[in-house]
């Protein structure tokens, strides 16, 4: 374990290296001494800690106490005030130096007894124990360095192996020629670690690229083979002298020899450093040298350096010395950074400091990747600047001083303009080639100022173009700029249409309403420059500029403290609440299907949010930086998944500087290309991405790549894309995707070079794709043609052989960047696609959807049960891995399938096959928890099959336990009326204490009222004992289904069990089932916003018009016409693309659903389809979103006039079908499931919109309402004609045999 110890006062803190990649230091343990014991010296090695104070030397050992690392005192001894303490490599000795004398003292580590005192002529500045595990000697060897830069070597002799004696000394004069000047006498000497040097020298000799033998290699080989100790001396003129001492590892030690290997030219180093450390370098044949002070790092190439070449030692980096701006020759300010401002494209940035000074930089991304200062101002020159803007990548800037009201453009010469008090100032984007920029200012009275800034060299100027207010009914709380990062090119030149085509301002009202604004006449800078001179004489160039509102969002958030808006019109709001600070993110695309709220989190008030800032990725995704006191969290959109409810946004990266510096973060700002600039105190930190990357599978993702993986478009082979294609019956496309994936894997290319399918294949219908898929297959041209072999076909087409080979390859080497769960899902979906191909006629589309969902359900639960899931580990610090990336959250086990997946099985025509598959998934023994998890008794049709399966469940419940307990199955057997069977089971339960009582009781005839009453009394007694399931069984035995159902609902909290009992006992038309649906299921569905569950309940209630309407219509409208009592309505969940799939199936399935469809306006259906397309994009299935909006049919069921010839055709004696319009003829019939003469309307007569729930917006104008009402009238006329044609009696003619002749 690597430990680092540090002390401050009387406290000692130890850090340990941790993290997945061992790149993070965290606090390991701590030690607190008495307050009068100030720590003056420390050393820590191998679980031993030596602490020197002003009066003592103590040794502590590391132990585990209650699983916590603790330092236990081993011994303590009184010593003079220590300045240094060092453990020997063998841990047998401790050497110390004191501030009071020039002696080196040696102590035994075990007891603390002093063994030797070594006097020196001058104070000792450093102690070094020689550590050489490869050496043949294990004697202690000590190097000491005194203030005159003399290094002394102490070693024991043969007759006194524990006593150190001086053997040689290296002083400054022994290594210098006689001709040196007195200025060179001042020097520093350092020992180059023997182990590090040996490893580097061996790497040079073993490197095949430099293996040729020459004079340079012979010298390196001599140093390595002889085992010389190398010493580096830095002289006063910056030259370096390399000395060597030979034969330290040999005996007798009197054979020590010292000599000079090399002396370099002056000024190789700035001068003698105070400290020098040698560390390994990743490159072969190189070392890294660190000096302090001055702080610098150097790269030493062994071959070149020992050959006295100029490039042998190169400086890699150095620390700058900071001084105050006003100090003589000062360059960098020590005042705290207050605020950053950048250019629209992030290529330039400026900072204003606490003392009123400021600086401007350009972001030199292409060359150095650093900030290059282009300008500055001082408080004496510009006054106390309150606002400023940076123009053209930092080439120009403008400052505003509130005390004087002067806006100054810092050009040559400068220009100024007097304007009223500003609260906001920013610049709009424009190409660098244009000489005019437009500045936007907001005054304290919320007036919008447009200012033209001319940057041309002859006569720079500032001109006020417009001074107007936003057309708002009341003064806004905030006016903010809309971030323009996504609208300008990253190379520094913006689009001239940026201001006209995109929103410029965001206003926030006191009620929390967001409004987006653009200038109605545009903001073309060239127009301003052309007209500026002609109207400058009036002081204001124009007063006719009008701002136009492009959209509003009602958030309902009052009292907000902070807001920011991104280029994609994503708005982040911070509102103080009683629980803390609420951070919300809103989308501008608000409709009846989306409130706009995408993310909500309440943060602790003890760590408030200090800053918000947006940036945009190359594929137009938004990233929000949320700044706290000592950390910054980066939030990005999370891709929605089909099976999990993931939040719309999540933390994707964390930057924590709390462990680096004590200063709090004052501001942070995004620069171009995902670079984040952070200011804390007077320090600036810049976090960025590499300029060019070579795609390697092992290389970690950059920020933009990580965000794209979390929310970008998916590859064809991603399991979510394959899943959605299967759900939407694109099986031929899935087969092509699998074949293409196999082809890419077999090619051996890097996955970044894999090819996806053309977008055109996603836009084909499954039948067309099947035709295209089969056209390349060989056809027989003659009777005796021989088809190609199976093996050859398997290589290029979808087959079991190809699929099995692909599965083997994927199991052997999973696709990078897929999580373990996604990898498992991919394997299952590939196998499922093969089963679909093999059993295409046995399973319908809805059955397939249920089957896929069921398999994914078991994959999820299996993955969630495995330890260390997901595989992305954390280091325990802030939930991040080594590079700051936030790993995926841990999978959670689900108790049941979603109701959506159960409904697919309910509408399937392959329920027998689904039931057998479900039983197989349960291991062949389905108990009630399995049946509830899969919703079996919600989707099975009533009848003998349901009763038979309940008997199977009852038998499995009885057989599940080792004791064969009859109480476990009594409820199900009593529901089936099999009392005698339960009586027989009790006869076999000799171990049960209730056997005799139950045998006697069940021997009675429960068709008699008195025994039914007795059973019900026993049920109430069991309720008092909280044996709820057994009580429900006795209620069934007593003939009280209603009481048994109430126990299931109120006590067991299992409405599925109640529905199963009701459907088995009385069927789907019984009053008790209807009561369950109306009073339990529907209120639950509306409370949770579960449209699937409500649609299923309405279908069972024979209100199929509402079953289809609830998929699209707002829940409030359905609640007003439903027979159920709805008291609470939850959030509307329109984030499921399968809603559109079910709606397309049901809207013309029966006459009732057709009537319900006619109650949905065309505009509502249009917005619904757009919402589902957005959901597809959120899921990464952009191709499917495009296919949805291209192929969706808005046709409604209506009759068409038959041609005259059909009037003479004899009607079919067995058909009650009527003609549909051509768009619906693909459906062979429509079921008449409505009493046409008494059918009530399902929509209110008034077209007025019902009050919306919560914050739901009302955005329809009178014109839109009129259009919607006209659309409804037309659709009602269509459904009226449909019902009218259905009401016509079908007259069946008598059978006439002559008609056949």
Number of helical elements: 35
Give the CA-CA distance, first to last residue. 102 Å
Radius of gyration: 41 Å
What level of helicity do the residues show?
Answer: 25-40%
Can you put this structure into words, describing what you see?
The protein is an alpha+beta fold. The protein is 29% helix and 26% strand. The strands form 13 sheets. It has a 4-stranded antiparallel beta sheet with strand order 4-5-6-7, with no helix packed on it. A 4-stranded antiparallel beta sheet has the order 8-9-10-11, with no helix packed on it. The longest helix has 26 residues, at 1262-1287. It is globular. The model is unreliable at 321-331, 490-500, 524-543, 771-794, 869-883, 1199-1228, 1244-1269 and 1286-1293 (pLDDT under 50).
Task: Give the key terms.
1301 residues; four-stranded antiparallel β-sheet; alpha+beta; 26% strand
What's the quick description here?
The chain is of the alpha+beta class. It contains 35 helices and 50 strands.
């Amino acid at each position: 374990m690597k430990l680092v110890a540090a002390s401050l006062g009387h406290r000692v803190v130890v850090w340990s290296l941790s993290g997945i990649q061992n790149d993070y230091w965290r606090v390991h343990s701590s030690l607190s001494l008495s307050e009068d014991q100030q720590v003056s010296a420390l050393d820590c090695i191998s679980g031993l800690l030596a602490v020197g104070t002003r009066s003592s030397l103590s040794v502590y050992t590391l132990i585990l106490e209650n699983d916590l690392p603790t330092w236990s005192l081993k011994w303590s001894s009184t010593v003079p005030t220590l300045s240094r303490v060092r453990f020997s490599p063998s841990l047998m000795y401790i050497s110390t130096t004191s501030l009071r004398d020039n002696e080196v003292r040696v102590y035994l580590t075990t007891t603390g007894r002093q063994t030797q005192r070594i006097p020196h002529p001058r104070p000792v500045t450093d102690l070094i124990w020689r550590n050489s595990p490869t050496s043949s000697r294990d004697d202690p060897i000590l190097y000491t360095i005194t203030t005159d830069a003399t290094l002394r070597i102490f070693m024991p002799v043969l007759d006194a192996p524990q006593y150190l004696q001086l053997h040689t000394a290296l002083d400054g004069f022994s290594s210098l020629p006689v001709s040196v000047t007195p200025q060179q006498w001042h020097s520093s000497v350092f020992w180059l670690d023997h182990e590090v040097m040996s490893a580097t020298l061996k790497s040079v000799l073993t490197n095949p690229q430099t293996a040729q033998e020459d004079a340079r290699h012979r010298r390196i080989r001599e140093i390595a083979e002889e085992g010389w100790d190398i010493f580096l001396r830095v002289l006063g003129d910056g030259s370096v002298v390399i000395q060597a001492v030979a034969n330290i590892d040999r005996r007798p030690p009197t054979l020590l020899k010292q000599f000079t290997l090399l002396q370099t030219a002056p000024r190789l180093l700035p001068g003698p450093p105070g400290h020098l450390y040698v560390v390994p370098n990743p490159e072969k044949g190189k070392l890294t040298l660190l000096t302090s002070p001055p702080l610098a790092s150097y790269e030493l190439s062994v071959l070149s350096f020992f050959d006295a070449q100029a490039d042998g030692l190169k400086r890699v980096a150095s620390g700058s010395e900071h001084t105050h701006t006003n100090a003589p020759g000062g360059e960098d300010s020590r005042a705290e950074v207050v605020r950053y401002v950048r250019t629209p494209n992030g290529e330039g940035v400026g900072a204003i400091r606490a003392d009123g000074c400021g600086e401007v930089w350009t972001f030199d991304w292409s060359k150095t990747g650093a900030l290059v200062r282009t300008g500055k101002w001082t408080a004496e020159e510009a006054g106390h600047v309150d606002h400023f803007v940076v123009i053209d990548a930092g080439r120009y800037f403008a400052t505003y001083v509130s005390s004087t009201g002067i806006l100054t453009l810092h050009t040559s010469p400068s220009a100024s303009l007097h304007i009223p008090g500003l609260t906001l100032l920013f610049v709009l984007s424009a190409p660098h080639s244009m000489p005019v920029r437009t500045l936007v200012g907001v005054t304290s009275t919320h007036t919008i100022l447009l200012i033209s800034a001319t940057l041309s060299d002859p006569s720079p100027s500032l001109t006020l173009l417009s001074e107007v207010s936003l057309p708002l009914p009341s003064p806004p709380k905030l006016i903010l700029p809309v971030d323009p990062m996504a609208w300008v090119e990253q190379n520094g030149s913006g689009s001239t249409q940026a201001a006209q085509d995109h929103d410029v301002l965001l206003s926030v009202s006191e009620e929390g309403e967001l409004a987006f604004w653009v200038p109605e006449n545009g903001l073309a800078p060239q127009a301003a420059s052309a007209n500026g001179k002609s109207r400058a004489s009036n002081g204001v160039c124009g007063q006719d500029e009008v701002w136009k509102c492009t959209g509003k969002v009602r958030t309902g958030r009052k009292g907000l403290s902070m807001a920011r808006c991104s280029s994609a019109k994503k708005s982040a709001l911070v509102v103080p609440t009683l629980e803390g600070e609420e951070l919300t993110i809103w989308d501008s695309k608000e409709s009846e299907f989306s409130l706009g709220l995408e993310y909500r989190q309440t943060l602790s008030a003890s760590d408030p949010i200090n800053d918000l800032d947006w940036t945009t990725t190359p594929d137009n995704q938004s990233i929000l930086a949320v700044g706290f006191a000592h950390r910054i969290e980066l939030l990005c959109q999370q891709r929605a998944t089909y099976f999990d409810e993931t939040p719309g946004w999540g933390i994707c990266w964390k930057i924590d500087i709390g462990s680096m510096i004590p200063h709090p973060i004052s501001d942070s700002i995004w620069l171009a290309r995902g670079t984040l600039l952070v200011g804390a105190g007077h320090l600036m930190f810049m976090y960025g991405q590499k300029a060019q990357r070579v795609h390697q599978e092992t290389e970690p993702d950059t920020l933009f790549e990580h965000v794209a993986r979390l929310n970008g478009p998916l590859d064809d082979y991603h399991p979510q894309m394959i899943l959605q294609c299967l759900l939407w019956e694109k099986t031929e496309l899935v087969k092509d995707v699998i074949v293409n994936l196999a082809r890419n894997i077999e090619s051996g290319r890097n996955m970044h070079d894999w090819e996806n399918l053309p977008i055109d294949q996603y836009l084909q219908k499954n039948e067309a794709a099947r035709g295209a898929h089969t056209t390349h297959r060989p056809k027989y041209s003659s009777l005796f043609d021989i088809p190609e072999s199976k093996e050859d076909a398997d290589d290029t087409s979808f087959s079991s052989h190809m699929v099995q080979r692909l599965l083997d390859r994927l199991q052997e080497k999973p696709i990078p960047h897929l999580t373990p769960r996604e990898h498992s899902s991919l394997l299952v979906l590939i196998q499922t696609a093969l089963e679909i191909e093999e059993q295409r006629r046995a399973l319908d589309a809805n059955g397939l959807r249920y089957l896929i969902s069921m398999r994914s359900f078991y994959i999820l639960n299996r993955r969630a049960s495995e330890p260390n899931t997901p595989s992305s580990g954390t280091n325990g610090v802030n939930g991040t891995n080594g590079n700051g990336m936030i790993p995926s959250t841990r999978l959670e086990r689900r108790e049941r399938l979603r109701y959506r997946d159960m409904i697919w099985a309910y509408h399937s025509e392959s329920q027998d096959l689904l039931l057998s598959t479900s039983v197989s998934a349960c291991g062949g023994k389905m108990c009630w928890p399995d049946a509830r998890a899969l919703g079996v008794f919600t989707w099975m049709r009533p009848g003998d099959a349901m009763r038979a399966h309940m008997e199977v469940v009852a038998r499995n419940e009885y057989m599940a336990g080792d004791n064969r307990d009859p109480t476990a199955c009594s409820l199900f057997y009593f529901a089936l009326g099999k009392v005698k069977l339960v009586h027989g089971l009790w006869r076999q339960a000799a171990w049960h204490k209730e056997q005799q009582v139950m045998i006697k009781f069940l021997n009675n005839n429960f068709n008699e009222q008195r025994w039914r009453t007795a059973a019900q009394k026993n049920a109430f007694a069991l309720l008092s004992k909280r044996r709820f399931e057994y009580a429900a069984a006795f209620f069934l035995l007593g003939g009280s289904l209603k009481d048994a159902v109430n126990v299931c609902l109120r006590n067991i909290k299992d409405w599925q069990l109640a529905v199963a009992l009701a459907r088995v006992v009385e069927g789907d038309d019984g009053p008790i089932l209807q009561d369950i649906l109306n009073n339990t299921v529907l209120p639950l569905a509306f409370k949770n916003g579960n449209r699937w569950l409500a649609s299923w309940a309405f279908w069972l209630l024979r209100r199929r018009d509402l079953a289809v309407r609830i998929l699209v219509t707002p829940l409030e409208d359905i609640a007003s016409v439903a027979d159920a009592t709805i008291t609470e309505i939850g959030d509307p969940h329109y984030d499921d693309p399968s809603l559109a799939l079910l709606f397309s199936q049901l809207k013309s399935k029966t006459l009732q659903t057709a009537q319900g469809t006619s109650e949905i306006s065309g505009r509502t259906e249009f917005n619904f389809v757009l919402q589902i397309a957005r959901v597809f994009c959120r899921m990464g299935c952009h191709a499917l979103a495009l296919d949805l909006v291209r192929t969706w049919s808005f046709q409604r069921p209506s009759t068409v006039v038959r041609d005259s010839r059909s009037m003479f055709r004899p009607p079919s004696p067995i058909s009650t079908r009527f003609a549909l319009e051509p768009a619906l003829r693909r459906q062979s019939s429509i079921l008449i499931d409505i009493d046409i003469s008494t059918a009530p309307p399902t929509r209110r007569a008034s077209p007025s919109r019902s009050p919306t729930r919560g914050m739901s917006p009302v955005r329809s104008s009178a014109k839109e309402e009129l259009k919607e009402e006209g659309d409804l009238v037309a659709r009602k006329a269509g459904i009226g004609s449909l019902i009218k044609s259905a009401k016509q009696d079908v007259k069946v003619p008598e059978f006439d045999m002559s008609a056949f002749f």
